[in-house]
Specification:
The structure holds three protein chains of three kinds. Chain A is mainly α. Chain A contains 14 helices and two strands; from the N terminus they run βααααααααααααααβ. Among the domains of chain B are: 177 residues, P-loop containing nucleotide triphosphate hydrolases (Rossmann fold), CATH 3.40.50.300; 185 residues, Rossmann fold, CATH 3.40.50. In chain B, helix 12 crosses helix 13 and helix 14 runs parallel beside helix 15. By secondary structure, chain C is mainly alpha-helical. Helix content of chain C is 72%, strand content 0%. Chain C is built from 14 helices and no strands. Classes of the chains: A mainly alpha, B alpha/beta, C mainly alpha. At the A-C interface, strand 1, helix 7, helix 12 and helix 14 of A face helix 3, helix 4, helix 9, helix 10 and helix 12 of C.
């Protein structure tokens, strides 16, 4: 018996939409089995994981708070991956954005005006884009593999953050804790009412919609799709591969940086050694689960935000490791890639030896 | 091994009446598509059997089954009277079936010996093998250096590797897939001599070709396939090229009509001392190329594959930018440093060799593929879309419809994915998309490569019609039949050098063949060897 | 033992996990496959090896388990990329993310436990030789295994038919298929080998280097190993040289920290990552060096027709 692929004449429209659903289904089933193997009641655990976070206002708010950076980074990555450019250092770019944007509250704490917040957001974007410019430059100028360089910079950015909050940027009145001063007033992102949800979510949604328009209605979006699907056809259309690398890195880096400053100025309120539960990596999953489509990314971002909150839920209620969320996320990416094969191929079981491979 | 073993082995078949290999009502299905439908074929020792058919008629599928690379869905393959299942190519080679592939099955960064050893049983020592390669290639007049890297060899030499590789297996049956498509006429003659020698030694040859003249010259029998079925089995010596063609195509092929170019006009495309160094070690350097193409004429560049045609196309189209603005001029404008869209705005159009992935994106709809070469130029004049501006889908759809109508592009739906079209229809689309603009200068690389006869005739006629309306056309082609059908003037490219051009009416195939092999010295083309492995 | 000897010894221990993971990936890439899941396979090897050693008390069973865990992860990768022809970059990432998560889950009960260290092999007499004694004859067994693997892979690729087939498949899978080689089977085998050595590399971390389980203890070594393969231009000898160079950089940082040099420890910790980027730049400025060995079908999926 042998599993073989048969190419479909045309890509399947049905599987295009069914594949993420199938992947989520498989993740839930395997997740249930893993819970059972750990001696936990699988149904209860799955309920706590996926449903419970949506049953009360407090946790819905938490989900939305977590969805904002995921969507913001995810849409940038969805465009980037579409172009077959591999920025996997969004986590570092997030850190860089948080650092550059925090210059305002740390050094100009008395500047209290909406303009200060705007400058912080812009600096955040610049910070992310600057870090992302390094792999872009190395790729275009020397042909250095962008996957490896962008990833190495994640470690470097984390160490830089660590050094700053333990050294020069440490709050002098912070009892020697490794964190910066707390941000105040207009240097914090406004929230809705007294809740935790802040303007960052609106920014993320608007940018997702904007990028959806760019990708489907403009030549720029066409350029991204052509270069990703067939680089030589891109050259034939007169599109430059190098400019595309720059575009993708600056865009996705800028958005990751924006997510970083939004996270510190919206959710955390200060710099500390740990500002992101791997949003930059999880956003890779968000991008794929969302079909590399900005609208899809919105839904995928919400789902993965649920997985964070659900992971915390099962940790508290059942006492299992906080790593379950990461396992679920890994499985989800794994299954989505698997199911995507069905868009272009049919699976068939071949009995006996299929002859030459 | 020596040739004597061949002579002993071959006549051992039980009586001359028995076929060496018989294919009995063999069918092959890919999903719902029937590639081969109840094929019968019989090959005899000492004979050259032609397998004819258009692209997509099912020739490749059939020989792949004989060579064990594919398994029949139904039917039998009988080897010397015994029905058997050829599981894989190694089993076929064990039986004595060898194959020379059209797109060679060679590895560029490996040596000749390594390439050959991969097709032989595993227990041979390298030094023994090198000796055998040297002696056998000398014996058959197929000189090869066993230690050379394939990347440094010409196309003809590469084919020799494939042939020597088969001969070392002491073949009883040799399958040759379009062997002369990549050879100069002189090299082809040498190949025919080798094949004739093999048959006198008792080897059977299954010879796939669409060059009907050489089939008439060389082959003893012929089987003709159309749409996966055998439509005729005949003696090619008794046929004319025209009747053979009729069997292949089914109907009589539309003849391309062409009046002589009365008077050519201004120089519309000019290359002056064009130089372009290859950017990869596997590429060819272009050296001091000079050429003028006038309005109203078709200039053809002949040459064996891999002599710099792809590089020339890239630098002409602007996909690769040259250092010298004046090296290329279109309509009098120096454009060596312009990008492809700027050149299009000078009323030039380009059709690359590869349809899938270069001239069109397989996963995109036809409408989107219109946008590929037309986003910066509409009707050949003004930019239609630029930068971030929105896409006018209605406009694109109407261009797509008129291309489909004018150039007979047939697809499942008007806006099908490009990848779902047959080779001929996609080529008509890619060519039609450019001709629709009525370009003043057209550069087209291998205009009818791998397309059916009907589509080829339509495309060639469209090119002639465009030139007679006053456009300058540069055709790069490996197909000498096509070149003589289209060209007013002919130049030959060889190892990155371009010969002077001559009037087509004053040239013969032999002249072209000589020019093709002119630079055929032993110095390697690729820059790889300079760097050292 | 002199300070100089001690430094060289630690350099070798720091380099060995990189070398182990990279030598497997080198074979994988030679066959035309890019497996970015090294980090995930390695960390799974580390946790499974540690757990097995804890449960059975035998570090050698731990090593065996680590190899099996690496192979298991690599087979997931192979199933997706070879059988289902998924994108190799994305699939490699998913293996890394999955491995980091799963290892955390498996290892949550082992955090903080004292580890069991794989014993050093000390060849009597020889290991007492001056200067070279400890260095050459007093290493832990995995160091010798790593060196044997490098020599073996080098010989295999250059001199054996298996190596020729692997190189052929990596260069042109269509031709290899036309000649009757099973591209997918060859690649499955290479991927499994890569999984095995990554598992070994993980075991080295949790059973030799720092014999305990710490979450994410691979700390990017899988990625550095990937960079090393590029740096080596797919040649095993150069790979070993690169690995020891990197180990040197790593140890340099640690020693500088220990000696209280007035440089922030974070900067010293970032040295290996900076060095990786630098190495990639250096090697890419000389394209000719790598081009002949670059597997031409690297990262491309292969679907045979039937």
């Amino acid at each position: 018996m042998q599993l073989i692929l048969e190419k479909r004449a045309q890509a399947s429209r049905l599987m295009h939409f069914a594949s993420p659903v199938l992947a989520i289904g498989l993740t839930v089933i395997l997740g249930g089995l893993i819970f059972a193997a750990m001696g936990q009641p699988p149904l209860k655990a799955l309920y706590l994981y996926f449903i419970d976070p949506l049953t009360n206002l407090w946790s819905i708010e938490e989900v939305l708070v977590k969805a904002a950076p995921l969507v913001l980074i995810g849409v940038g990555l969805s465009v980037t991956f579409r172009a077959n450019v591999w920025n996997i250092g969004a986590e570092g770019q997030l850190t860089a954005g948080a650092l550059l944007g925090s210059i305002i509250p740390i050094f100009f704490a008395s500047w209290q005006s909406p303009l200060a917040l705007l400058v912080m957001l812009i600096l955040g974007m610049i910070g992310g884009a600057l870090l992302a410019a390094i792999p872009a430059f190395l790729k275009v100028r020397f042909g250095v593999n962008e996957i490896l360089t962008s990833l190495m910079l994640v470690y470097i950015a984390h160490l830089l953050l660590d050094w700053l909050v333990r050294g020069p940027w440490k709050d002098p009145h912070g009892y020697n804790f490794p964190k910066s001063v707390s941000f105040e007033g207009w240097q914090l992102i406004p929230t809705f009412g007294d809740g935790r949800v802040h303007l960052g979510l609106v920014i993320a949604l608007l940018i997702a919609l904007l990028l959806y328009w760019v990708m489907t209605r403009t030549i720029k979006g066409f350029e991204v799709r052509v270069i990703g699907a067939a680089p030589r056809a891109g050259a034939f259309a007169g599109f430059s591969q190098s400019r595309m690398v720059w575009f993708c890195f600056l865009l996705s880096g800028g958005l990751a940086g924006l997510a970083g400053i939004i996270e510190v100025a919206g959710t955390i309120g200060q710099l500390q050694p740990n500002i992101s539960p791997s949003y930059g990596f999880t956003a890779i999953i968000v991008a794929f689960l969302g079909r590399l489509n900005p609208i899809g990314v919105i839904f995928a971002g919400l789902l993965l935000a649920v997985s964070y909150i659900g992971g915390e839920g099962v940790q508290i209620e059942l006492g299992v490791s906080d790593k379950t969320a990461q396992v679920f996320q890994g499985m989800l990416l794994f299954f989505i890639l698997m199911c995507d094969t069905l868009i272009h191929y049919r699976l068939r079981l071949l009995k006996g030896n299929g002859g030459a491979q | 091994m020596s040739s004597s073993t061949l002579t002993e082995a071959a006549p051992s078949s039980k009586g001359s009446a028995q076929a060496l290999l018989a294919v009995k009502s063999v069918s092959k299905k890919f999903g719902d598509f029937v590639a081969n439908d109840a094929i019968d074929l019989s090959l005899e020792a000492g004979k050259i059997h032609a397998l004819l058919g258009e692209n997509g008629a099912g020739k490749s599928t059939l020989v792949k089954m004989i060579y064990g690379a594919l398994q029949p869905t139904s039917g039998q393959i009988i080897w010397q009277g015994e029905a058997l299942c050829i599981d894989n190519p190694a089993a076929a080679r064990e039986l004595g079936i060898g194959m020379v592939f059209q797109h060679f099955s060679l590895f560029e960064a490996l040596t000749v010996t390594e390439n050959i050893s991969l097709a032989l049983p595993p227990h041979l020592r390298t030094s023994d093998l090198e000796e055998r390669i040297a002696s056998l290639s000398q014996d058959y007049g197929l000189p090869l250096n066993p230690q050379a890297l394939v990347v440094d060899l010409s196309v003809g030499e590469r084919q020799r590797i494939e042939i020597v590789r088969c001969l070392l297996q002491e073949p009883r049956l040799l399958i040759m897939d379009e062997p002369t498509a990549v050879l100069t006429p002189q090299e082809a003659e040498a190949l025919f001599a080798t094949l004739n020698r093999l048959t006198t030694e008792g080897c059977a040859v299954l010879y796939i070709s669409h060059r009907l003249e050489e089939v008439k010259q060389l082959c003893h029998d012929a089987t003709i396939l159309r749409h996966g079925k055998v439509v005729a089995q005949l003696d090619p010596q008794l046929e004319t090229a025209a009747t053979l063609a009729q069997h292949m195509v089914g109907t009589s092929v539309h003849e391309v009509s062409r009046q002589e170019c009365e008077q050519s006009g201004e120089v519309a495309l000019q290359l002056s001392n064009l130089k372009q160094m290859a950017d990869t070690p596997f590429g060819v350097h272009l050296l001091d190329i000079n050429l003028q193409v006038r309005s109203g004429e078709i200039m053809a560049i002949a040459g064996v594959a891999g002599n710099g045609q792809g590089e020339l196309f890239s630098v002409l189209s602007g996909e690769v930018i040259n250092d010298v603005a004046g090296a290329i001029s279109i309509q009098g404008e120096a454009c060596g440093q312009m990008g492809i869209n700027a050149r299009r705005q000078l009323h030039a159009a380009f059709v690359p060799e590869e349809r899938n992935g270069h001239g069109a994106v397989a996963d995109f709809s036809l409408t989107e593929n219109i946008l590929l070469s037309r986003h910066a130029v509409a009707d050949g004049q003004q930019p239609l879309h630029k930068g971030w501006a929105g896409i006018d889908r209605a406009e694109l759809a109407s261009v797509n419809q008129s291309v489909a109508k004018k150039y007979d592009v047939r697809s499942a739906s008007i806006d099908a994915e490009a990848g779902s079209l047959s080779g001929g229809n996609l080529q008509k689309f890619v060519v039609g998309r450019e001709l629709e603009r009525q370009p003043k200068v057209l550069v087209i690389n291998q205009p009818t490569w791998g397309v059916d006869a009907g589509a080829a005739a339509l495309i060639r006629q469209a090119l002639i019609d465009l030139s007679r309306q006053g456009s300058a056309i540069l055709v790069i082609s490996q197909d000498l039949d096509e070149i003589f059908e289209l060209a007013d003037r002919i130049a030959v490219i060889s190892r990155g050098h371009l010969s002077a051009s001559h009037f087509a009416s004053e040239m013969t195939r032999e002249d072209i063949g000589l020019l093709m092999s002119k630079e055929e010295t032993s110095h390697p083309v690729s820059s790889l060897s300079e760097g050292g492995a | 033992m002199s300070a100089y000897e001690a430094i060289l010894l630690t350099i070798i221990t720091a380099s060995t996990p990189l070398l182990l993971a990279a030598i497997g990936e080198l074979v994988v890439e030679r066959s035309g496959v890019l497996n970015l899941g090294l980090e995930g396979m390695m960390v799974m090897g580390a946790v499974c090896g540690f757990a097995m050693a804890q449960v059975t008390g035998s570090p050698w069973l731990g090593v065996l388990m680590a190899m099996l865990a690496g192979i298991a992860m690599s087979m997931l990768f192979a199933f997706l990329t070879q059988t289902l022809v998924t994108n190799q970059v994305a699939t490699g990432l998913s293996i890394t993310l999955l491995g980091l998560g799963l290892s955390g889950l498996i290892g949550s009960g082992f955090v903080g436990m004292p580890g069991i260290k794989l014993e050093y092999i000390s060849i009597p007499v020889l290991s007492d030789l001056p200067v070279v004694g400890k260095l050459v004859f007093g290493q832990d067994p995995l160091v010798y295994i790593s060196i044997l693997l490098v020599l073996g892979v080098s010989y295999m690729l250059k001199r054996t038919r298996m190596g020729l087939i692997i190189r052929a498949v990596g260069q042109n899978h269509d031709s290899a298929h036309a000649l009757g080689y099973s591209v997918i089977k060859v690649r499955y085998a290479c991927i499994a080998f890569g999984g095995m050595t990554s598992g070994l590399a993980g075991a080295y971390l949790s059973l030799v280097y720092t014999p305990q389980w710490i979450e994410n203890m691979t700390a990017g070594r899988g990625w550095i190993a990937l960079a090393l393969v590029v740096f080596s231009t797919w040649l095993p000898g150069r790979l070993a040289a690169g690995a020891y160079l990197f180990g040197g950089v790593w140890i340099l940082g640690l020693y500088a920290q220990g000696m209280g040099v007035g440089i922030p420890s974070q900067l010293l910790s970032s040295l290996p990552y900076l060095a990786t980027i630098l190495a990639l730049i250096v090697i890419s400025t000389n394209r000719r060096l790598s081009v002949i060995n670059t597997p031409a079908s690297l990262g491309q999926g292969f679907v045979p027709d039937r």
